[in-house]
């Protein structure tokens, strides 16, 4: 979209006289931010020595603010295409409750504050990783990949997969295999999760000019890619148990959830037409959320129980 047309769209959008606090909170993408906090907590709890509670809390807060800053900057840049999609047109900027300038300033301020806070309370390795995560999500994914390649979700998924690594680095000042495994788990989870939604929202992505995989290479290729990524994801989900930093209970849960995820992906691959195909795709989309949430929930609970036994 040209700059001139964007200016016309911006000028014609309805504007509220004063933004409500809830509009600024919506810029943070709170649902995404909560997942970031949860996965970063898992990274912190993987530390071989329990971190100080203040360090853990302050680090989580900084990581959460950094994730929210990324969301605000994403909404600032994507305001033009957000107006064209039903699931995003109610966001504060396209709905006219906030201007792009306010979102940009808000996002930049939070980014700087989050990175420097994490550096001061934890260490500068963690702060550097957080800064890289924000940069990768905003510049590499939002500004470049999202509008230029159908592999946007695959490559861009690295930003969403980094919080456990940032959390582990905040607690230890280092990066190890366990945090990298959690990175790989989220990284491999991202494509089938979002491509399942893209199958359902294909027309909207096409109207917005976003080259999602179904729009560029077709639904058959997308269904195959979803199945392949799901099959590769399942053993990575079990890896924390196989590598010894999760219990047999986690291993059993991961095995069952992985099998169910692959079954959902098989259904998406086989059902090609009509409402059944749409329902299968949405079933995979929602189950993938359950899959990732339960895996990290079990891991966090196990580490908290281990921590309580250390303190007893």
Automatic annotation (TrEMBL):
One of its GO terms (cellular component) is plasma membrane. It comes from the Bacteria. Keywords: Cell membrane, Heme biosynthesis, Membrane, Transferase, Transmembrane, Transmembrane helix. Pfam families: UbiA. It is a multi-pass membrane protein. It is found in: Cell membrane. The chain crosses the membrane at residues 32-50, 56-77, 98-118, 124-144, 151-171, 177-200, 226-243, 249-270, 282-301. PROSITE patterns: UBIA. Its EC number is 2.5.1.141. Pathway: Porphyrin-containing compound metabolism; heme O biosynthesis; heme O from protoheme: step 1/1. GO terms for molecular function: protoheme IX farnesyltransferase activity. GO terms for biological process: heme O biosynthetic process. InterPro entries: Protohaem_IX_farnesylTrfase, UbiA_prenyltransferase, UbiA_prenylTrfase_CS, UbiA_sf. Coiled coil: none annotated. It catalyses: heme b + (2E,6E)-farnesyl diphosphate + H2O = Fe(II)-heme o + diphosphate. The keyword Transmembrane helix applies. Its main location: membrane. Carbon 2 of the heme B porphyrin ring is defined according to the Fischer nomenclature. Converts heme B (protoheme IX) to heme O by substitution of the vinyl group on carbon 2 of heme B porphyrin ring with a hydroxyethyl farnesyl side group. Belongs to the UbiA prenyltransferase family. Protoheme IX farnesyltransferase subfamily. NCBIfam families: cyoE_ctaB, PRK04375.1-2. This is Protoheme IX farnesyltransferase.
